[in-house]
UniProtKB/TrEMBL annotation:
It comes from Acer yangbiense. It comes from the Eukaryota. One of its GO terms (molecular function) is triacylglycerol lipase activity. Pfam families: Lipase_3. GO terms for biological process: lipid metabolic process. This is Fungal lipase-type domain-containing protein. SUPFAM superfamilies: alpha/beta-Hydrolases.
């Protein structure tokens, strides 16, 4: 089947890659979705972007349908999902703090419900010291876990519990979702290893609709190393209509992860030529950690 890009932004994709398949859920209607399932001729649909004249085979149109439908539904229910997640977390914390449901009901009647903060393991393994072969693996695992916490918890844990220096906590802008949906932090052990900087990206939170939209965006661009997931590139800092410019002047209120972290690392390298950096993350954060150096 010969695919033709009928959209007006073909040149934008050419700036990134010569081969790509881009799905645009924001442009999809119910009629488009039904058309995917009942018709093999979907080349003229505005939500599909493929290079002009490129032959491409879509073996399973059901996957494309589910991807687009899933993103549309997630976008529609993002606020209720967030509220549900917050309410569920509070309920589970209250239940856990009061031992079990029967104890909670009893304490409700007595008017003595406990509302302590949930317990989390945030301290490092004291049996693994700097220089051990497991040290950085352990530190990266704990940093990936800590990345799910808010700024106050991250700051307190890194500085007071780990006795290290927090170099930055970031809410990065996603140029396509038009909001700050990528989080991460940077820290350094100035005493034991002043030459190494660690960056941890936050992964997917269960009730975060924006993160799930990123995950199920099956669009891709092809590079020398293979095909790369566009959703993760958007989260890392793909620029609308520009792709990955070598130099990009950011807006102060809309920092992109890739360009912000790249500039920070350049500053450290100028100060210390021996500077090394480690990237880590869990789930979506792991994907960003892999993609950043590439």
């Amino acid at each position: 089947m010969a695919w033709t890009d009928m959209g007006s932004d073909d040149h934008d994709h050419d700036k990134i890659s010569d081969n790509y398949m881009i799905l645009r859920p924001e442009e999809v209607s119910l009629r488009n979705l039904i058309g995917i399932l009942v018709s093999s001729d979907i080349a003229c649909k505005a939500f599909l972007k493929i290079p002009t004249g490129k032959e491409e085979t879509i073996k399973d149109r059901g996957i494309m349908f589910m991807c687009l439908l899933g993103q549309k539904l997630l976008q529609s229910f993002s606020v209720p999902m967030s509220k549900l997640g917050s309410a569920l977390e509070k309920w589970l914390n209250i239940l856990s703090s009061n031992d079990n449901l029967s104890q909670l009901l009893l304490r409700v009647l007595q008017g003595i419900i406990f509302f302590p903060l949930p317990h989390r393991r945030l301290d490092l393994d004291k049996n693994i010291k700097h220089g051990d072969c497991k040290y950085y693996a352990m530190l990266c695992a704990m940093a990936s876990k800590l990345s799910y916490e808010n700024k106050a918890v991250v700051e307190k844990t890194v500085q007071e519990c780990w006795k290290m220096e927090l170099l930055g906590y970031y809410d990065f802008w996603n140029d396509y979702q038009r909001k700050a949906t990528t989080q991460g932090f940077m820290f350094q052990d100035k005493i034991s290893d002043p030459d190494t900087i660690i960056i941890a990206f936050r992964g997917t939170e269960t009730f975060d609709a924006d993160a799930w939209c990123t995950n199920i965006d099956l669009s891709w661009y092809e590079f020398d190393m293979g095909k790369i997931h566009e959703g993760f590139m958007k989260a890392l800092g793909l620029v609308i209509n520009q792709g990955w410019p070598k130099e990009y002047e950011q807006e102060s209120k809309k920092p992109l992860a890739y360009y912000t972290l790249r500039e920070e690392l350049k500053k450290f390298l100028k100060q210390n030529s021996r500077t090394k950096f480690i990237l880590t993350g869990h789930s979506q954060g792991g994907a960003l950690a892999i993609l950043f150096p590439a």
